[in-house]
């Protein structure tokens, strides 16, 4: 991904209404009892065709050529996974946050690749704590596949040690978003210090 594409991605995230939500006074509750001054809500990009298409195309450019299948994580990443799969003309599956104990599929919706040991690309909208991405990768590895993670935004999480050995790429991160917001006058230096201190992670 070029620096120009990264800058454009951060510009779109900041410009698109309801994507970057920030308040120094009224922190946002992202989990019961977990408050943060900034939340990046990628779901709000889907209302704008040009924005969502651009982000999908950039995500597709991050996918390894060796990947044989695209896997979306419900629910925020499902749209982007589907478009990336269409752009690259690859099979598509989805990963449930909770296992279904009846019927077919359990954690996966769709058919896993026939070739064990092949690479599956996990598409996520936001990497916060990394719990769902980690669970997805663990399930794929347990089933005999390799995995990589491509996301739109990352809060620079401290994920499980084995996740650091994977290829994890994203279009934007907290540092880049803060710098872009600072340059555009959306944040001041005090805001950036607060965001980086308080936003170690967020949930989707």
Q: In a nutshell, what does this entry contain?
A:
The protein is an alpha/beta fold and 204 residues long.
Give the topology string: H per helix, E per strand. Answer: HEEEEHEHEEEHEEHH
Task: Round the Cα radius of gyration to an integer and report it.
Answer: 17 Å
What is the number of beta strands?
Answer: 10
Q: Kindly report the spatial arrangement of strands forming the biggest sheet.
A: 7-6-5-8-9-10
Anisotropy-based shape: globular
Please give the share of residues in helix.
Answer: 25-40%
Which runs of at least 5 residues are low in confidence (pLDDT < 50)?
none
Structural class by helix and strand composition: alpha/beta
Name the quaternary structure.
single chain
Mean pLDDT: 88
Proportion of beta-strand residues: 15-25%
Distance between the termini: 24 Å
How many DSSP helices?
Answer: 6
Largest sheet descriptor: 6 strands, mixed
């Amino acid at each position: 991904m070029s620096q120009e594409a990264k800058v454009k991605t951060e510009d779109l995230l900041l410009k698109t209404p309801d994507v970057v939500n920030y308040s120094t006074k009224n922190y946002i509750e992202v989990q019961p009892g977990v408050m943060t001054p900034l939340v990046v809500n990628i779901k709000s990009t889907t209302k704008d065709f040009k924005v969502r298409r651009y982000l999908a195309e950039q995500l597709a450019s991050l996918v390894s050529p060796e990947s044989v299948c695209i896997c979306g994580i419900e629910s925020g990443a499902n749209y982007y996974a589907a478009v990336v799969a269409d752009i690259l003309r690859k099979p598509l599956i989805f990963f449930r946050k909770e296992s279904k104990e009846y019927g077919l599929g359990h954690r996966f919706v769709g058919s896993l690749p026939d070739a064990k040991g092949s690479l599956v690309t996990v598409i996520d909208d936001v990497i916060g704590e990394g719990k769902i991405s980690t669970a997805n990768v663990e399930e794929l590895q347990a089933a005999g596949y390799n995995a990589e993670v491509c996301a739109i935004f990352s809060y620079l999480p401290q994920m499980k040690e084995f996740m650091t050995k994977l290829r994890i790429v994203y279009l934007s991160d907290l540092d880049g978003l803060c710098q872009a917001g600072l340059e555009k006058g959306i944040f001041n230096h005090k805001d950036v210090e607060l965001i980086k201190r308080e936003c170690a992670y967020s949930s989707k």
